[in-house]
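Table S2 (continued). Query chain:
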Amino acid sequence: MPLGTQLAPQLPYLRRYARALCGNQAAGDTLVVTLLEAALADPELRASLQGGRIALYRTLGQVWNKVNQGTTATLPEGTAEKAAQLRLSRITPLSRQALLLTTVEDFTVEQAAEILEVSQEEAQQLVASALSDIARDAATDVLIIEDEPLIAMQLEDIVKSQGHRVCATAATRTQAVEAIATNRPGLVLADIQLADGSSGVDAVDDIHAVIDVPVIFITAYPERLLTGDRLEPTWLVTKPFREASVTTAMAQALFFREPEPLKVAEG
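Corresponding output:
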């Protein structure tokens, strides 16, 4: 089977992983393109990708580790990317990859260890280290946009378990817009299809017209939002979700959030 045919079903999920590593869509998609271009130019690398999903993620991680070196110093001061890179300096690349592989991408610890070329014990330690480091971020208010009551309640429990506050819940686009009239959430969890047939994507567009806030989309059909053909969500969780997937996505989204505006002393 041609390599392109083998890779095609994996690309939406590989882009998701790359975006989580990099913190935004553009950088993540560029990372995947870099990997594919390298494979075209290097027969040995191309042959290694025939090893399946584990080989593909291992190679992407190796490319990211190379690209990631020394990026902090080249970013403009005061930008979200610079702030994120400074926070990222607290977490080693291996810890970050281990966390994402075992939560967002649903690899087992054994598979993550194989991808990272470490022992299972070390992989477990890397995950624990990453969770400890990113938990340092301050608690925030969270807006939940979800039309299924049981799922909304489950998300509320997850949000509160991480030390955050639920400022409002909404089941429709209209309710979501009304919610931000009296609240300024630091994070939004949004379903795609809402109770009255409205779109969670449209609701988020309305919210972004008022405030700039990180959003995690939660959907049973992630491939519909990961085509690479348009501006897409950086943070995406697949239904049915595991608690660890949501908590990791929340930590990642807050980790790469916009920096607070600089306050100028009066006088």
